[in-house]
Amino acid sequence: MTTQRNIAVERTFLAIKPDGVQRSLVGEIIRRFEAKGFTLVGMKFMKVSRELAEQHYGVHRERPFFQGLVEFITSGPVVAMVWEGDGVIASARKMIGATNPLTAEPGTIRGDYGVNIGRNIIHGSDAPETAQQEVSLWFKEEELASWEPSLTPWIKE
Ligand code: UDP
């Protein structure tokens, strides 16, 4: 949580992985979060260094898929983003769907576009603590643009 404009604003970190970029899903994925009513506050198109990938997925360091995951995330550009809104962390996870696209519900990003756990298109922070850590791992504060969308009164009571 970040306190700005005198209200508590919830933020999450999302990244469209190299498969999502290669499959031309960038526009469709951003469209879904925009249409839902969340606010984009940071975005960059970038190649991920091995160091950043290993830090980001550090919790999985001992898992058998770790090396392959790092290879994959560093294999091509990603779209790193920060989105803001009430309940955005949990809501984005629902919109993304289960880790394995084969069990992810239709209507979710992974459920609609994926078939393999190692190619599941998008990352989303799973809790407030990880969201905060990931936002500051991937973005400097000055790379985030706080703004008030003119549609806010039509999205929030
Ligand atoms: N992953 C994988 N094989 C596995 C489990 C996970 O390749 O058996 C990858 C997959 O890309 C997943 C990422 O590791 O998105 C992180 O796993 P986590 O359990 O944190 O899933 P997520 O939070 O992304 O749904």
UniProtKB/TrEMBL annotation:
SUPFAM superfamilies: Nucleoside diphosphate kinase, NDK. Homotetramer. Its main location: cytoplasm. GO terms for cellular component: cytoplasm. It is found in: Cytoplasm. (Microbial infection) Catalyzes the phosphorylation of dZDP to dZTP, when the bacterium is infected by a phage that produces the substrate for the synthesis of dZTP (2- amino-2'-deoxyadenosine 5'-triphosphate), which is then used by the phage as a DNA polymerase substrate. Major role in the synthesis of nucleoside triphosphates other than ATP. The ATP gamma phosphate is transferred to the NDP beta phosphate via a ping-pong mechanism, using a phosphorylated active-site intermediate. PROSITE patterns: NDPK, NDPK_LIKE. The active site is at H123 (pros-phosphohistidine intermediate). ATP binds at K17, F65, R93, T99, R110, N120. SMART domains: NDK. It catalyses: a ribonucleoside 5'-diphosphate + ATP = a ribonucleoside 5'-triphosphate + ADP; dZDP + ATP = dZTP + ADP; a 2'-deoxyribonucleoside 5'-diphosphate + ATP = a 2'-deoxyribonucleoside 5'-triphosphate + ADP. Its cofactor is Mg(2+). GO terms for biological process: CTP biosynthetic process; GTP biosynthetic process; UTP biosynthetic process. The lineage of its organism: Bacteria, Bacillati, Cyanobacteriota, Cyanophyceae, Chroococcidiopsidales. GO terms for molecular function: ATP binding; metal ion binding; nucleoside diphosphate kinase activity. This is Nucleoside diphosphate kinase. It is an enzyme of class 2 (transferase). Residues 9-146 form the Nucleoside diphosphate kinase-like domain. Its EC number is 2.7.4.6. Belongs to the NDK family. InterPro entries: NDK-like_dom, NDK-like_dom_sf, Nucleoside_diP_kinase, Nucleoside_diP_kinase_AS. Keywords: ATP-binding, Cytoplasm, Kinase, Magnesium, Metal-binding, Nucleotide metabolism, Nucleotide-binding, Phosphoprotein, Transferase.
